[in-house]
Design brief:
Length: 562
C-alpha cells in the first residue's frame, strides 16, 4: 500500500497550499525544499533583506514521517475489520511490534483491554472522533485515547477505504496521582464516618411508656460526612428527653463539634431543665466551641402524666406527630435561631421559649434532619409536606416506620446529604398490657394528719397493685419520707403521686416551693436531714426538678422484680 496516500484529518487542521513560483518548487513526496535564488540588487545600490523562504506545506510532508516523530503511541487501521496499516515507534515501544494487514481484534489485544474495538466501529460508521479517558491496560499503564476517522488523501480516489487513527496519551502519572487523591479522600471519609457513628448512641434508651427507633445514613461517596445526630435521654420519674440536631458543615470537624454538642445536651438534660433553658445553655456553648460552626437542634421532653411533648427548637425543622387515625400535626412554634447565633457570651440575642404538641396514646412523633426532606429542585416546605403524607400511611414498629420514611422520601445510598430520623411511638395499651400501667395520686393539704394519710394511701394502692410485701414496705417508707420532707421544707399545694409501669414503681411528691433538696450527711445529734439519704439508699434512683408553675417535684424509683 502506498502510505503517502493516507493523511489524518485532525480536528481544526486546515489544508494549506504551498507557495510556489516559476523559479522554485516543493517536491511533495520527499518533503525537500529548494534554496531560493538570490534576489537582484536594487538599481540604486541599496541592500534589501531577502524574504524568508516558504517552508514545506503540510500536504508535502509524508504522514509516516509525521506520525513516526510523535512521542505518543499511534496506530492507523483501515476497513471494517480494522486491519493494521501502520504503528509508530512509540506504539511498538509500548505494546510491541504489530504485523501489517492483521486485524486489530487478533493482533492488538491492548485495544480490547482499553475497550476500544466497539468505539472504533462507532467512529468508522459515524465519521466523528471519540475519546476515552484514563483507561488502564493489564500492564498497569493508563492511557487517554482518541479515535479519529481518516480517509485517503488522493483527490483522484474519493472512494478510498476509510480507516481510524488511534492516538494514545500515557496518563499513568496523572491516573496514579488521582487514585492517591481518591484514596486519601476515602480514608478521610471513613475516618469521619467512624467518628460520627462512634459519637451517636450505640443503643437507644427505651423508656417504659415509649417505643423508639432511629436511623442514621451518611451521604453517598461523593458527599462528605456531616454533623447530624440524635439522642434519647431518660430523665427519671418516667420522663424522657428526645433530641435531634444538625451541625452545618462537612467532615471530621463537623462530626467533632456534633460530639461536643451531644455530650453537652446530655449533661444539661441531667439538670432536668425545661427545653428552652437547655437550648439557651447550648446556644452559648455552641458559640464558644466554634463561632464559625452553626447548628440546629430540637429538644423535647415527654411526661407520661401529661400526654404531650414539651419542646423547643433552635432553627430546626418542625416535629411531626401522626395520630392513630392518620392525621398529621406539625409543631410550628416556637422556633428560635440556630445555635451559636443567639448572642455573644450568653448576653443579649434570642431568648428561646418552649411549646407543646399533643402525643396521645396510639400516636407517632418523628424528629428528622434536613437531609430527609431537602432537595435542590424544590422548596423545603414541599419536602416536609411529602414527609407528612408518607408518615400518615406508615404503620408498624418504629424501625419499620423509619425504613418506610427513608424509602418514601427517595433516600438511597448515594444521597447527597446525611439523614437522621428519630421515630417515637406512644403505644395505646389494652388488655393485659394495660394492667401493667397504673396511676394514683392524693392531694395533701398539710397539717399533722398529712403524713399518716400519705402512708395509708400508699399502703392501700401498693397492695392493690399486688406488689411483694418487701416492695410495698419500701414504697411506703419512701412515700412517707418524701411527704415529710415536703411538709417541713415546702409549701402548699402538695400532692403524692404513685405510678407503676411494666418495669418500675415511681413515687413523686410535688409542692409549691422551688428550693430543690440535696442529699447531705446528718450529724448524730441532728434531728432532721436524713430523709433524702434514706430514700437514696432504698430506691434505685431519685431526683428533683422545678415544675413550670414555680414549685418542685421530688421523685424516686424502684425496679420491679423480673
Amino acid at each position: 500500500m502506498n502510505f503517502t496516500r493516507w493523511s489524518a484529518r485532525l480536528p481544526g487542521t486546515q489544508r494549506r497550499a504551498a507557495t510556489r513560483d516559476d523559479h522554485s518548487s516543493v517536491p511533495a513526496a520527499r518533503a525537500e525544499s529548494v534554496r531560493p535564488k538570490a534576489a537582484a540588487a536594487p538599481p540604486d545600490g541599496t541592500s534589501e533583506t531577502p524574504a524568508p523562504a516558504a517552508g514545506p506545506a503540510l500536504e508535502a510532508l509524508p504522514a509516516r514521517e509525521l506520525l513516526g516523530l510523535l512521542p505518543a503511541p499511534v496506530a492507523l487501521l483501515h476497513g471494517p475489520e480494522h486491519r493494521i496499516t501502520y504503528v509508530n515507534a512509540a506504539y511498538t515501544s509500548a505494546f510491541g511490534p504489530r504485523p501489517s494487514g492483521a486485524s486489530a481484534a487478533e493482533a492488538m489485544p491492548e485495544l480490547a483491554e482499553l475497550s476500544l474495538l466497539p468505539l472504533m466501529d462507532q467512529v468508522l460508521r459515524s465519521g466523528t472522533p471519540r475519546t476515552v479517558k484514563s483507561r488502564k491496560v493489564l500492564a498497569g499503564s493508563s492511557y487517554t485515547v482518541t479515535c479519529t476517522p481518516v480517509a485517503t488523501g488522493a483527490p483522484e480516489d474519493p472512494d478510498g477505504e476509510a480507516g481510524v487513527l488511534v492516538y494514545a496519551t500515557d496518563v499513568t502519572d496523572h491516573a496514579e496521582a488521582a487514585e492517591r487523591l481518591r484514596a486519601s479522600e476515602r480514608r478521610h471519609r471513613e475516618t469521619a464516618v467512624t467518628l460520627q457513628r462512634s459519637l451517636l448512641p450505640q443503643d437507644l434508651e427505651q423508656p417504659d411508656d415509649l417505643r423508639i427507633a432511629a436511623t442514621y445514613q451518611p451521604g453517598g461517596t461523593d458527599a462528605a460526612v456531616g454533623g447530624d445526630w440524635y439522642d434519647v435521654i431518660t430523665l427519671g420519674a418516667g420522663r424522657t428527653a428526645l433530641v435531634i440536631g444538625d451541625v452545618m458543615g462537612r467532615g471530621v470537624r463537623a462530626a467533632a463539634v456534633m460530639g461536643q454538642l451531644r455530650t453537652a445536651v446530655r449533661a444539661y438534660a441531667r439538670l432536668d431543665l425545661p427545653p428552652h433553658e437547655v437550648l439557651q445553655l447550648l446556644d452559648v456553648l455552641a458559640a464558644e466551641i466554634d463561632a464559625s460552626q452553626i447548628a440546629t437542634c430540637a429538644y423535647a421532653v415527654h411526661d407520661p402524666n401529661e400526654g404531650h411533648l414539651v419542646y423547643a427548637s433552635a432553627g430546626h425543622l418542625p416535629i411531626l406527630v401522626c395520630n392513630e387515625d392518620g392525621t398529621v400535626h406539625r409543631a410550628e412554634d416556637p422556633t428560635g435561631p440556630p445555635l451559636g447565633t443567639g448572642g455573644t457570651g450568653g448576653t443579649g440575642g434570642w431568648v428561646h421559649t418552649s411549646g407543646t404538641i399533643p402525643l396521645p396514646p396510639g400516636s407517632t412523633a418523628v424528629l428528622y434532619t434536613d437531609g430527609l426532606v431537602e432537595r435542590r429542585s424544590e422548596d423545603i416546605d414541599e419536602g416536609v409536606a411529602a414527609l407528612e403524607r408518607a408518615l400518615s400511611g406508615a404503620k408498624g414498629t418504629p424501625q419499620v416506620v423509619c425504613d418506610r420514611l427513608i424509602r418514601s422520601l427517595g433516600v438511597t445510598a448515594e444521597h447527597d446529604d446525611d439523614v437522621a430520623v428519630l421515630v417515637v411511638q406512644h403505644p395505646a395499651r389494652t388488655g393485659t398490657s394495660a394492667e401493667l400501667f397504673h396511676n394514683a395520686s392524693l392531694d395533701l393539704l398539710g397539717g399533722i394528719e398529712a403524713a399518716p394519710r400519705a402512708r395509708a394511701f400508699a399502703t392501700g394502692v401498693l397492695a392493690s397493685w399486688r406488689f411483694p410485701v418487701e416492695l410495698c414496705d419500701l414504697g411506703v417508707l419512701a412515700a412517707s419520707e418524701l411527704v415529710a420532707n415536703s411538709l417541713q421544707h415546702g409549701t402548699p399545694p402538695m400532692r403524692l403521686g404513685l405510678r407503676r409501669t411494666d418495669r418500675r414503681l415511681i413515687i413523686e411528691v410535688t409542692d409549691g416551693d422551688d428550693h430543690l433538696p440535696r442529699r447531705r450527711r446528718a450529724e448524730p445529734a441532728d434531728e432532721a436531714g436524713r430523709g433524702i439519704s434514706i430514700v437514696a439508699t432504698i430506691a434505685s434512683s431519685w431526683g428533683s426538678r422545678r415544675t413550670p408553675g414555680g414549685g418542685k417535684a421530688v421523685w424516686c424509683e424502684f425496679a420491679l422484680p423480673a
